Amino acid sequence: MNTPAISVAMSVYNGERFLEEAIASVLAQTFADFELLILDDGSRDSTRAIIETHAARDSRVRPIIRENRGLIASLNQLLAESRAPLVARMDADDICLPQRFARQIEFLAAHPEYGVIGSWCEDIDENGRPWPVASTHRHPTDHEGFLAAIELGRPLLCHPAVMFRRDLVLSVGGYHAAFKHCEDLDLWLRLASITRIASLPEQLVKYRHYDEQVSSRHATEQQIGAAVAKLAYKERLAGRPDPTAELEHLPPLEAFDDLFAREDVCREVRAEVAPGLLYSTDGLRGNGFDLVLEHLRDGGRREGMWRTVLRLLRLGEPSRALKLASTLSSTTQAG
What we know:
Largest sheet: 8 strands, mixed
Keywords: Glycosyltransferase, Transferase
Pfam families: Glycos_transf_2
Domain Glycosyltransferase 2-like: 7-169
Radius of gyration: 21 Å
Structural class: alpha/beta
Organism: Novosphingobium aquae
Enzyme class: transferase
């Protein structure tokens, strides 16, 4: 078979709700020289049937059907089985605009110094309507802006909107298993030192928000992983070994001081993660709540905490609201 110009990498787990629309948006691209690898990660719904129907109709669709192993294993398998020098990521709940691939491959052909190119996104809800909570920061459109965004803690790339050079991603070991739910951020931070990265200033993907997506259900783990990925990035910049490089799983938060061989790393991570959890229903109802309490007991910043007491009441969590109020009162008296 002829080698395609682009391999499209899509992993799906129980994705029947939006999968048809996602596949159709890929197959409708104006740049047509691609293979679409769709990995069914052990779905229990009609995902497999949808994939196989499209494969029977269009030879560019390559199904990979197997048992559930999780997203990171799936992404690395898609990388390994891709035949093209360029890989375009795509999620099973988003929508590509028709010119996406054409615009990105044109940019990479004209800018060999860039290894990763994303795009701006149009935020939509589960029904395809405009998402009411739009980001105030656009993804950076040159590498200098990308590096600045790392330092400022701003959004770097929209993962399902990126196209990258496969050999570069393989050269840094692909996606690292330790960074579950933030594997893309860790990858961009590792690539930032060996290639240039940016996004096209065009909305080429419709990015869907809904309650069941991973970023809504695993907020605490995602934010802790993101904080650790940034710490590892700073270690590499300083010329020190990356203590996360060989990990399969991140250790418990309390072990981060030992992992990075210095004091107060655990406190630093809590201080970075706690403010974001104040707006996460999953975080406040899950183990993120204990992290917020420990942050306060460490003498951490208190902005927004009393409003969070009210929010917990509205969420139907009166015991947690009382516990947060008590911790706020006791830490005020101690101070």
